[in-house]
Design goal:
The chain is an alpha+beta fold. Helices cover 29% and strands 25% of the residues. Helix 3 crosses helix 4.
Length: 233
Amino acid sequence: MKHAQPRGLSRRRVEQLLSETKHDRSAGSRIDVLSRHFLGHSYKPNPLIGSADTVEVFTASLDGFDCVTYIETIVALARASNVDDFTEWLRRIRYERGRIQWERRNHYMTLWIRNNVREGIIRPVSMPTVPILSRERVLNVVPGLAAQRTRVKCVPKPAVPRLEPHLQSGDLIFFASTRKNLDVFHAGIIVRDGKKVFMRHASRSQGSVVEQELSEFLKANRMAGVIVVRPQG
């Protein structure tokens, strides 16, 4: 089934980006190169079009992001070989089974992770020596969406230093909320520089896509822990 071109898509810009990574066989390296391009781009709250009362419009703008659309865009670009490939992957990453409907959008990050693992786009990172915390949540912060029960399994915040040696450039990191009605409050992309671990993310407080040391973000934010997944090649 052929889909209409997404709102806000710049085919030339996507072609330029893909030309820089077309010979790079490593998913992590492609994500590193592509995510660097958007440093300094504007943070855009609520960048998607659609709600319980508004028809969903599939968008693929590269002009500004929230933390989720930044990750979705980079992972879709990293998997793509041409512009149509990019929009196809973005649709599959953002929506359950790729169906462009507001109800099918992966609103909660535990659902986003589960659906993208099922699609073979990401996989959990195996860390047998790192402790895992499990918490049940009833998610109800999206207006118009029925409450959903989920289980959040994360590495508790005090154990994150034990997690860091397992992290690779291109890994996606999700920060588990301490609130009983929310699973994840923020997300970013891991980039390694030797022993230093950085995160690139669309930051609401800083108003743009930024890179900062992961340890700094951990110190500045209250959280239950972190979830890490690795995009597939």
